[in-house]
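To: structure desk
From: M.T.
Subject: fold request, one chain
Message: Could you run this one when you get a chance? Sequence is below, nothing fancy, just the single chain.
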Amino acid sequence: TSERLHKQAASLRSDVLLCPNGVDAPHFEDTATSVPDDLAPILAEGKPIIGYHGAMARWFDYALLKEIAQQKPEYNFVLVGSDHDQTLQASGILDQPNIRWLNSKPYHELPRYVSRFDIGLIPFILSDITHATSPIKLFEYFAAGKPVVVSAMEESKRYPQAIVASTPGEWITCIDEALKR
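Reply: Done. Structure tokens follow.
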């Protein structure tokens, strides 16, 4: 599903195909869904929602998110997904008042959350694994019509509509600019 994996596999066999990730676009295009009960109080605060859905795991850049949240208390950061390897709890980011974790949700409910995000976020630590990753959430955010701020992963940089950031300062600038769209 990524150029990096394709190149590695092609060195072993000549018949390897690159099959990029896709998305069930109609599933994420539906914005007429009701507001989830656990998201309603956060929305009521009237702050922009910078959202992430997916597993929280060792590849998630908790330090980056904490720094951004500390510098931007006027934004709420909403995390929807499982604490895959208990790194979320250990990270301490949930002590930050504008970072909210709503736990894991069934796939059929994700559009109810994503439709309320002002921006989709993919803050992954750069590594061999993440450079070989094609995050499906990127395409889900796109299908929902959301601007997406993403780490400078090789695969994500292939999509010109992805807003790529590296340093905490760039992340903040990119989020601020994406909110103006």
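Reply (cont.): The two ends are 30 Å apart (CA to CA). Let me know if you need anything else for the meeting.
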